[in-house]
């Protein structure tokens, strides 16, 4: 299993990402513009390559001439390892490159090449050389000045007393306390100042959007924060300027100009001279940014860079690693902008697509000879690579530049075709740009797509990758987005690409544009689930939502932004959330959810306005995790809570970054975080919503009893899943009213022991309400008071942690086991109760018609539900309710596609609690960790104040 080996021994997480994008593919062969892989059926699939090895495969894969030449070279025993000798092939290549530069730049200066093995190395060499040269030049300036200063020290005036006020010295050079000094003292202070200047940290200038590699130094020259930021503490001091803000160029020099000080004695006075120098060591740029999104800039900007370098006396480093060597239709892309650099970096196509070789090409007038002593690399200058590069260079210019002309023609055809597509899809395609066979197609931002999968792809900057996955799986085309802007599809095919292949690409891109326009995410999902989706139906369905957002009322006063961190209740809901995926089978939906595991964050949904009866309102936004209950439960089963907690935490911080001050967790997101407690996130009030969930469940039961003609106080109540905090608090509150309680556990290891703890907790709650004097209406408390020895126990153990245990023992002794509370794992025990509360954490329903007593009142507050939904149709005698659902006062609620099992104007109680916290201005956590009976009563009161009522009761069964 090579996939597993690659994952387990080479790139652990990356393989998951490839799977999530539909790019999991192992190519077996490559030739010309084509790559070949075997599909799961074992058939060989031919893919047309529009990525071209990020530009390196300009000459096509395994070009037969180069392959023959390389074989012949190796067979003729050319030395590969002959370091520290005269490298003839390197010499030939160096001369050929210099000639090529002369032709391209129409000059006669000699160019000196330093060879290396990769693009980043070529840039590192440029950086090293620039600093080497700068240091040398600064040292010389320092020495010259120092010579002058030393002669002053040696002069007869050395001990002349000078008035400090007469000296024009910058502040800080001399101690502020001195009024008069000797000339010698001044000289010493000035030398110290100059010495400090010699050690000023060099500054490198690069452009916003740049990519110069990922080594320790080059990564700091690469704009993408994700690559650079983790390593900011070492490496270069880089300042990025924005080519769209050319004034930044003007402002740059002042910030980095420093001064040497020198002194001149005219026989009477001492004059202070300030001699400026720049700390800018080099300016680096790509003529056409590749990885940054195929960006080129205004000609004046390029000239501005040249001017800056002339003025600062620092080299302009032109990184042509990607754009050069013919890729843009000329030997150097920069020559199309009339740009003259001092250093050039070449790699990628230089090796003919076969060899790993790079060159840093420096004008001889800017080259420091000694650099060739101090820089070297084991593999650099090897004969085979240099011979192939030499042939590649010759090929580029052969037949009167035929290959370059061909690149220009094909590039123009590709661009014109893309522009036509843009005319047809101006709503989808934002821009087409580039030169030669270095072309970018930029898509509009899809954050507001009605397809949540498309919008989420945009949110996660993965849109281009998903499109690449679809194109690979269903159109046999290979493209990639640019790394720093996934909305730009990068097209860098080999020069041997045919016009027919370009047409094929355009036709496929037209289908992509069409599906993006229609809000159809099926092709994207299909790319990920390709092995379970043999064919993709051609369809024209329009999934765009045209209805206006409902309750946007400009007049309400929004008092808080509230987030809710949810997940998909089940995989099937995916088809509601994104209707374009409704056609996926349940299995495919699950596959989609499982494979997208590396990026769980879906685009935030909302906000919607939720109003209080009192007039104020909150903005309520969902921050979904794209996983179903099974996937969430799996984290609990596997014990891998850290990773899911991290995911939930990231969503909370996403919400905080968007200005939310309250986040509600619900369903499994609260379970896995131990009811919020596992999250350590500053400045966010969290709630599991458990208090209101319980409050609303109680209300449902009370109303249900009235409807069924049952007196609650005469009933036995069963609580299913009673070991959990929600259910145990529920049971505790019920114990104050009902006649008997049955606590039913999961049957998992230790569940009876956990239930016994719940029972003890209930006894302790009852006892504490006696101690607090609030036991008047607490039925269990009243009955405990009649027990012989109870008051004594209360007296002796009232403040102790094991009070409940002692009461349980006393009850057992006096009345036998199960007097007030029965503990069991047996689901059949439910039949002994007329009131049933279902609150078990289970990914699937497990209770049905056979489990319930006649005319019972069943309240299912579990999410996902515990009871099979066909119960009402099978058992007309029972009253089945979803207790955890709240009606908002003005029918405000979630958009239809994200309501899950809710109806218009409804919220789950766990959501509603976070809304109530927002409405009442709370900045403390709500239901956090275990909750108490008191919290339940408080939040019930809060709900009543704001006009939030029990919802679902009226919508189920009769009434
Ligand atoms: N400079 C430029 C302009 C590049 O595009 C790249 C690589 C490098 C330097 C570094 O070369 O990978 O050989 O060390 N660009 C690739 C890309 C990786 O995604 O465009 P390397």
From TrEMBL:
InterPro entries: Aminotrans_3, Class-III_PLP-dep_AT, PyrdxlP-dep_Trfase, PyrdxlP-dep_Trfase_major, PyrdxlP-dep_Trfase_small
Record SUPFAM superfamilies: PLP-dependent transferases
Highest taxon in the source lineage: Bacteria
Keyword check for Transferase: yes
Keywords of the record: Aminotransferase, Pyridoxal phosphate, Transferase
A Pfam family per the record: Aminotran_3
Cofactor names: pyridoxal 5'-phosphate
GO MF: identical protein binding; pyridoxal phosphate binding; transaminase activity
Protein name per Swiss-Prot or TrEMBL: Pyridoxalphosphate dependent aminotransferase, class III
Species per Swiss-Prot/TrEMBL record: Pseudomonas putida (strain ATCC 47054 / DSM 6125 / CFBP 8728 / NCIMB 11950 / KT2440)
């Amino acid at each position: 299993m090579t996939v597993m080996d690659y994952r387990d021994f080479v790139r652990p997480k990356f393989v998951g990402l490839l799977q999530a994008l539909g790019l999991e593919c192992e190519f077996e062969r490559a030739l010309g513009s084509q790559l070949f892989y075997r599909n799961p059926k074992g058939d060989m699939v031919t893919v047309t390559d529009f990525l071209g090895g990020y530009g390196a495969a300009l000459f096509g894969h395994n070009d037969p001439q180069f392959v023959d030449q390389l074989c012949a070279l190796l067979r003729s025993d050319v030395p590969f390892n002959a370091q520290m000798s005269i490298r003839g092939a390197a010499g030939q290549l160096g001369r050929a490159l210099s000639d090529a530069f002369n032709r391209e730049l129409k000059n006669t200066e000699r160019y000196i090449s330093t060879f290396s093995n990769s693009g980043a190395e070529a840039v590192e060499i440029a950086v090293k050389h620039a600093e080497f040269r700068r240091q040398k030049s600064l040292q010389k300036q320092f020495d010259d000045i120092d010579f002058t200063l030393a002669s002053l020290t040696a002069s007869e005036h050395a001990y002349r007393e000078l008035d400090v006020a007469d000296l024009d010295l910058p502040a800080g050079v001399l101690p502020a306390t001195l009024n008069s000094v000797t000339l010698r003292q001044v000289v010493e202070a000035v030398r110290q100042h100059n010495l400090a200047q010699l050690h000023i940290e060099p500054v490198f200038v690069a452009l916003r959007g740049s990519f110069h590699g990922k080594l320790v130094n080059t990564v700091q020259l690469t704009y993408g924060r994700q690559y650079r930021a983790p390593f900011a503490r070492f490496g270069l001091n880089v300042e990025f300027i924005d080519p769209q803000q050319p004034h930044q160029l003007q402002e740059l020099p002042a910030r980095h100009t420093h001064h040497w000080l020198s002194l001149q004695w005219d026989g009477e006075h001492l004059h202070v001279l300030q001699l400026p120098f720049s700390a800018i060591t080099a300016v680096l740029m790509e003529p056409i940014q590749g990885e940054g999104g195929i960006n080129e800039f205004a000609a004046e900007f390029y000239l501005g860079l040249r001017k800056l370098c002339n003025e600062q006396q620092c080299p302009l480093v032109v990184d042509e690693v990607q754009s050069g060597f013919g890729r843009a239709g000329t030997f150097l892309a920069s020559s199309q902008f009339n740009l003259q650099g001092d250093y050039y970096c070449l790699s990628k196509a230089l090796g003919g697509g076969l060899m790993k070789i790079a060159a840093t090409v420096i004008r001889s007038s800017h080259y420091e000879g000694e650099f060739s002593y101090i820089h070297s690399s084991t593999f650099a200058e090897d004969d085979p690579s240099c011979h192939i590069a030499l042939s590649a260079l010759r090929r580029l210019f052969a037949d009167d530049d035929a290959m370059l002309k061909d690149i220009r023609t094909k590039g123009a055809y590709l661009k014109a075709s893309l522009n036509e597509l843009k005319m047809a899809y101006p709503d989808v395609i934002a821009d087409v740009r580039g030169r030669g066979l270095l072309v970018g197609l930029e898509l509009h931002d899809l954050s507001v797509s009605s397809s949540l999968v498309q919008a989420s792809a945009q949110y996660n900057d993965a849109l281009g990758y998903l499109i690449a996955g679809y194109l690979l799986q269903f159109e046999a085309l290979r493209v990639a987005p640019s790394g720093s802007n996934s909305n730009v599809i990068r097209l860098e095919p080999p020069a041997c690409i045919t016009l027919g292949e370009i047409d094929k690409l355009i036709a496929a891109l037209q289908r992509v544009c069409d599906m993006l326009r229609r809000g159809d995410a099926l092709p994207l999902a299909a790319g990920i689930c390709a092995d379970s989706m043999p064919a993709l139906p051609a369809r024209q369905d329009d999934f765009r939502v045209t209805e206006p957002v409902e309750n946007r009322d400009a007049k309400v006063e929004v008092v808080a932004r509230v987030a809710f961190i949810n997940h998909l209740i089940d995989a099937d809901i995916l088809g509601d959330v994104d209707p374009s995926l409704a056609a996926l089978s349940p299995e495919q939906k699950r596959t989609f959810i499982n494979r997208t595991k590396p990026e769980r964050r879906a685009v935030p949904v909302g906000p919607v306005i939720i109003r209080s009866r009192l007039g104020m309102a909150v903005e309520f936004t969902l921050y979904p995790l794209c996983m179903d209950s099974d996937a969430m439960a799996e984290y609990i089963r596997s014990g891998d809570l850290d990773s899911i907690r991290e995911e939930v935490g990231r969503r909370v911080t996403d919400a905080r970054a968007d200005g939310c001050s309250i986040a509600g967790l619900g369903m499994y997101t609260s379970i896995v975080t131990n009811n919020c407690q596992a999250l350590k996130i500053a400045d966010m009030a969290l709630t599991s919503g458990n208090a209101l969930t319980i409050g609303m469940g109680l209300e449902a039961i009370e109303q249900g009893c009235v409807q069924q003609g049952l007196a609650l106080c005469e009933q036995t109540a069963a609580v299913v899943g009673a070991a959990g905090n929600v259910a145990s608090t529920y049971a505790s509150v019920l114990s104050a009213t009902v006649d008997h309680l049955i606590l039913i556990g999961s049957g998992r290891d230790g569940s009876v022991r956990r239930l016994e703890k719940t029972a003890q907790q209930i006894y302790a709650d009852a006892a504490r309400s006696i101690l607090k004097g609030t036991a008047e209406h607490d039925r269990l408390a009243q009955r405990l008071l009649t027990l012989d020895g109870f008051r004594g126990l209360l007296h002796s153990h009232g403040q102790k942690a094991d009070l409940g245990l002692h009461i349980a023992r006393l009850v057992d002794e006096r009345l036998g086991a199960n007097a007030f509370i029965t503990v069991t794992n047996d689901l059949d025990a439910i039949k002994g109760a007329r009131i049933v509360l279902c609150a078990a954490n289970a990914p699937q329903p497990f209770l049905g018609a056979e489990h319930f007593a006649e005319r019972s009142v069943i309240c299912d507050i579990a999410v996902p539900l515990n009871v099979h939904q066909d119960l009402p149709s099978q058992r007309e005698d029972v009253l089945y309710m979803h207790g955890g659902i709240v009606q908002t006062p003005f029918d405000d609620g979630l958009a239809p596609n994200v309501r899950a099992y809710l109806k218009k104007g409804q919220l789950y109680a766990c959501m509603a609690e976070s809304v109530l916290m927002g409405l009442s201005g709370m900045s403390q956590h709500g239901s956090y960790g275990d909750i108490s009976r008191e919290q339940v009563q408080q939040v019930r009161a809060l709900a009543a104040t704001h006009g939030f009522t029990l919802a679902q009761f009226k919508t189920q069964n009769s009434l």
